[in-house]
UniProtKB/TrEMBL annotation:
Organism domain of life: Eukaryota
The protein, known as: Alpha/beta hydrolase fold-3 domain-containing protein
Active site: 243
Organism for this UniProt entry: Sporormia fimetaria CBS 119925
UniProt xrefs under InterPro entries: AB_hydrolase_3, AB_hydrolase_fold, GDXG_lipolytic_enzyme, Lipase_GDXG_put_SER_AS
PROSITE patterns: LIPASE_GDXG_SER
SUPFAM superfamilies on file: alpha/beta-Hydrolases (SSF53474)
Residues in Alpha/beta hydrolase fold-3 domain copies: 162-400
UniProt keyword annotations, A-Z: Hydrolase
Amino acid sequence: MDATPTQLLKLLLPKTPLLLRTALAHTLSLSPQSSKWDLRTAITVSIMRDMMGPNSTPTSITHQQKLTTRDPGVKGPMWISKVALDALPDDEVNGVRDVLLRAIKELGTGNETYSIPNNAPCEGEWTGYRAGVAANEPEPTGLSEQQKYDNLLKETTSKVTVLYFHGGAMYLLDPSTSRPNTARIARETGGQAFSVRYRLSPQHPFPAALLDALTSYLTLLYPPPTAPHTAIPANEIVFSGDSAGGTLCTSLLQLLLHLHRQSPNPTVSWYEKDVAIPLPAGLALSSPWLDITRSMPSITHFAQNDYLPPVTGSNFTTRFPACEAWPAKPPRADLYCEASALMHPLVSPLAARDWSASPPLFFSLGEEMLRDEDAVMAQRAAKQGVKVVWREFEALPHCFGMMLEGLGATRVHYEELGGFCRDVVGGKEVETSAEFLKAKTLERVQVDVKGLCGLSDEEVEALMRKGVERISGGRKGEMEGRPML
């Protein structure tokens, strides 16, 4: 979110000693990343570590949500059209919720417990690129949301529609905070993006957000009468998301793949009509969070490159002061779900073994703490015949494309993501490729996509089970939650 010079001064002034130490260590090459980061990256990561680390002042879930879900306003080269559609009735037989609940049961062990959510309104916002506009120029006044969408559509140059899910560890942020990111994606693809306002945990635990994701996809395919858009074919839609948004992307894909394994032509009752549930054109993922247990080796091996809190001892989880949102009532071990559901493939997509018949997958990530879980899924999918495009950037942190504006790697990240979206929607054959891009020079090194991670499926499962034990083994009533992702 934007900040005034006074606000920035209040934020940075107390951190002057930290900034000086970081700058000195970087200049004298005393940091392991000195040869791989520029000074701006070093300072940015250092500040974020300080803000998110174990020595930061703990704040409640409610307070954090109020801070991170404020609408920052619309300005600059973007069109924004907000959408809020009525919820489907909960009693519609074989409707969206019934399809999801049945899949959860079929994919699980039978031991999982979870809350049954109500259907919710489909809410979010359309984003498009607005050409010839200065960075601080406000959006035009006097236009209805429909008029804004019509103007947005006039400036598109491709058929790409990105269904976007924002990050925030399932409990933070709002689609409005992703506007610079989705506007950049719209510019790179020449298309439009729909950012979903899914329900946040802990108030709305699994599977509420996944139900919202499925509802939003069907809304694009089969728009209700009050929607601003016309029907969008599945082969023009790409799922995309960063961090926890990547969790929803891949969970939604696994849900759709399961439905297609059950029936060659799955359908669902949608506004009293039976409609098909097709697969999208592809997935474009930025540092996706695939393992809610946070148990893979890179969580510790690449902590030096990242700003996320490391999983060591009591720092595995962030402790929050009690508020109306947390601890949950009745208590549960994790913000997003019950401990018994942590390894369900629609909760932690890393637990899903079968990705065959998936549309093409694009991964862009740093050499970060979530690297191994992404590598496991990418190599699994590639071994099963899925087209996989892997782009790993040396020494860069989680979601670097959104955090480090102006970096050469950030430019490449958006170019590659945009090109992938245009290719899968345009019908161009996507070839499997995997590249490791070196720091600063961005020299590309070809790697084997089927050998990205040395862990076997059995080893991955064993590590995740230990993670479940770590999460669920805390003292009863202890206020624990996920680190910010």
